[in-house]
Amino acid sequence: MFDLTYLKLPKIREGYKNIWLRNFLHFKKTFMVSFFWVILEPLMYLGAIGYGLGSYIQTINGQSYVDFFFPGLLASTSMMVPFFESTYNNYTKLTFQKIYNHMMLTRLDSHEIVTGELLWSTFKGLFGIVGLVIIGSFFGLVSEWQILLVVVILTLNSWIFAGIAMTITSIAKNYDSFIYATSGFLIPLTLISGIYFPISQMPLILQITTYIFPLAHTIELCRMLLTDSWHWWGYLHIAYLLILAYAFFLIALHRISKKLIN
Amino acid sequence: MSLDTAIEAKNVVKKYSDFVALDGVSLDIKKGECFGLLGPNGAGKSTLMKLMYCQSLLTEGELYILGLNVKTNFREIKSKIGVVPQDNMLDEDFTLLENLKLFARYQQMEPSTVNEKIFHLLRLFKLEEFANHQIGQLSGGTQRRLCIARALIHSPDLLFLDEPTTGLDPQSRLWLWNFVKQMKDMAGTIIMTTHYIEEAEELCDRVAVIDHGKILAIDYPATLIKNHIGEEVVEFHSNSVDLNYYINRLKENKFEYQVYHNMVLVFIKPEQNSRILLEIIKSEKVTLRKPTLNDVFLKLAGYNLRDV
Fold this sequence. Notes:
The structure holds two protein chains of two kinds.
Chain A: H1 16-29, H2 31-52, H3 65-94, H4 99-104, H5 110-138, H6 147-171, H7 176-192, H8 204-210, H9 214-226, H10 233-260
Helix pairs in contact in A: 1-5, 2-3, 2-5, 3-5, 3-6, 3-9, 5-6, 5-10, 6-9, 6-10, 9-10
Chain B: E1 5-16, E2 19-30, E3 34-38, H1 45-52, E4 60-65, E5 68-69, H2 74-80, E6 81-84, H3 96-106, H4 111-124, H5 140-152, E7 158-162, H6 170-185, E8 189-194, H7 197-203, E9 206-211, E10 214-219, H8 221-228, E11 232-237, H9 240-252, E12 256-260, E13 263-268, H10 274-280, E14 286-289, H11 293-301
Parallel strand pairs in B: 3-8, 3-9, 6-7, 7-8
Antiparallel strand pairs in B: 1-2, 1-4, 4-5, 9-10, 11-13, 11-14, 12-13
């Protein structure tokens, strides 16, 4: 029998704030490195794909290509940043640096540690999103107030991918596992989720597949909000994202806890 | 359980899938005691210690730390104990001072008391000059001192030292021994594991010898030596031809002995006379000496190498 108590969120105590703080203090030391890859990399994509390639495309779904591409780029940034944070970085902390074991020597428990780490990854995602929104506004890509709602949706997306990444970290045997996860899952996902072209261009089987994952839902929501074309099924997208956010949080909590105390 | 009990273990069992790491361990440790856990690699001493400091889950049995159950009150226990783990587990992304400050935060200490406490510890452990060094720049001895300072930051009632002197230079080791003695003078409770028997003999009030997940003996070092070895030890080397002859003579005279390659240890009980023995043995390499805890340990745990 499936045990329903697994679906219940365990009590998370306030110690998670100190985990977040530890990461923030470290972030302040290595700010420039983060700045480069979190903000400059999407900026290069914006130039190369949005403006470079986009200049050959008249309109796409009634928009200029760069207007179409920008929400996709935002969503992809909100996925990539927490994903890499919670795979490579968190795996290093879990195994080689033993930082979680070190935290476990104090009154902190494993749930506080996992929650703090996921919140940190999400925050770093938000850092990238806001950076890109500011840059986008210089290029005249952001003018609607709805961008605030978009940032909320993207933050939710960051949280989900932090949870997915932490789950992968709990399964990983070594760093090679993340190469598989990146090349076999993350990169293909960016190609089928409607970042570069509308999902309707793809074969039906790929259209169905892409909606299993959160990224396509996030991108669709962002486009709806930014082009003033809200539909009631937007709520279904949100509901699905919330379910994934909860599910991967729980899975990450259970799996990492088992690694820290057994 | 009386009020002066620091740790009470009843029939503690720890299994990892099909491997039994601890097989029914029971012991009591009193407050103010320095208690040593001795055993070869893989004997279960670190596992037992991990259960005590709540980094591992009990499979069976009961374990109380400071009157609190490890199964339900691990959070409260962890706020009352200090742990110096085998591999230092310092946060290498930060400096020495930052490590202490972060640890105080994790322990959720009152912010107003933290700075004063850290200042005091830095002075006590002679760490002031390294305060702004990155962890990687510190020597092994300094890192270990930092670990102890870290473990004491929240003024714990109980201190765990897991092989505290492994890998340290003689100066650092001597410093650590002195520190433990000072802690004992202040009636602090210390539980330590060690490979170095002379360390246990020097520092511990009581020791438990553990092997294959079981406690083989538990007592004061002097009592263990008296009960298991006796008053004196005669140690001699012999070639393999004469060895059998000597062993037969030892048996005739009802001496207790142990053979390791060409070396023989004879344990002299209070009622026996070592003079007779010295007449029997014609080896050139004979020594008569006081028994040590090392003799007890090797007698109980044997001479075989352990690969873990």
